[in-house]
Amino acid sequence: MARVTDEVPLTLEGEPPKTLGVLDQGALWANLGVSLLGFSGALFLLNPLGDAPLSLAAALVATVVGSLIGTAMVGLSAVPGTRTGQPAMVLLRGLFGAKISYVPTVLNIVQMLGWGAFELWVIAKAATAIFGGVPYQVWVIAAGVLTTALTIWPLGAVRILRRYVTIGVIVSMLWFTWFFLTEAPAPTGGSWTAFAPAVDYVIALSVSWVPVAADFARHSRSGRAAFTGVVGGYTLAQVACLGLGVYAVAIAGADAVLADSTAVFNPFVAVPVGALFFGILVLRETDQSFANVYSTTVSLQNLMPRMDRRVISAAIGVLTVAIALVVDVTSYGAFLGVIGAVFVPMFAVLAVDYFVLGGSRRWNTAEDAPARWSMLVPWALGFVAYWLTTSTPTIAAWDGFWASARELIGFTRQSWMNGALGAAVVAAIVTVLAGLLTSGSRRSAAR
């Protein structure tokens, strides 16, 4: 067991240990990049619009491009956590002020609970594919107990991932890759028409970890180690995961996966010794639920800084299990779109303010950090830009609203437009303008 001094402090008032090197970060993010949800998610990658399938080449290029863009965002969002020693939602005190930071904190808590429930659901479904006689509810509860235990010793969990789990995951992925490439029919046909929404989808997969990155990077030995671990580990793993998923979908049949996303697990179990290697991936999936529950815990500490994180983790673990027992996963794609729309522009605002406008020299994460209402403007405009430029469908009524908004302002979305990039660019430009106006006002006042 790790020494107490090597673990995360129980409250925000404790000093965070700097014990994670680049290998620790790389192993953590590589494991997070391999997701059982990603295998079925390959269906969204191949046909994000539902009526314009991508060619295999287009899908693979979209995976690489989207992963690099998304992980670069996640990696940059990790660096301020390393420098300040603060988790992600506490960092937002410096961007928005302490009180306003509660708004994105609540949004993050909601999305992390959703992700945690998704992960318990997929673990239980995957385990059922191996051991069909055990009820779904038993697997959810078992995965929830293991997840909660990991959140009690989070840095110890990261070290276990590096030393033991990562090797098993690499061997398992290579095993499945060998059989899929030699036995599975490669997807044929398709086009590049839906390339932009496919990139949007992959970016959303990656950028959903932006609100988590600093929670672990605060324990990194350097910003370079945190950034390298995120970009290198997650990019390689996500590209491999989605690429493997493309072939798994081809074997299972797109219609079968569309009707039941867990059908994509069957090809993995069917290969020789597949149950053993797929079982390793199922067990590893608990790092996903662990990261989500732990991030929910430290996000709540932004609201309750002196609350013992172990108590919060236990409560969140129970709540996540309860949600997973009744969760509806049919809105998975829509869920990712909403996440991207909220956190991509927020990241852009933070990155520009912190790295470009000199925020790193004055970043105030105190409980009484003054409100910065002006920073809400670029965030909001970036959110709007996302929905004006994205082509990824979510919920019919919501998509209809933005279609009407485009018509009202006379804006025509072009096929090459990308929602995530549109949101980031608009938010970044408006943040720069706001910074220039603020600095100009200060100079005038000084005279």
From TrEMBL:
Q: State where the protein is found.
A: Membrane
The UniProt keywords, alphabetically, are:
Membrane, Transmembrane, Transmembrane helix
Ranges that cross the membrane:
28-46, 52-79, 100-124, 136-157, 164-181, 193-214, 226-252, 264-283, 311-327, 333-356, 376-396, 416-437
How the protein sits in the membrane?
Answer: Multi-pass membrane protein
Question: Entry's InterPro entries?
Answer: CodB, Pur-cyt_permease
Which GO cellular component terms, listed alphabetically, does the Swiss-Prot or TrEMBL entry include?
A: plasma membrane
Q: One Pfam family from the UniProt entry?
A: Transp_cyt_pur
**One GO MF term:** cytosine transmembrane transporter activity
Give the family per the record. Belongs to the purine-cytosine permease (2.A.39) family.
Q: What is this protein called?
A: Cytosine permease
Q: Which organism is it from?
A: Nonomuraea cypriaca
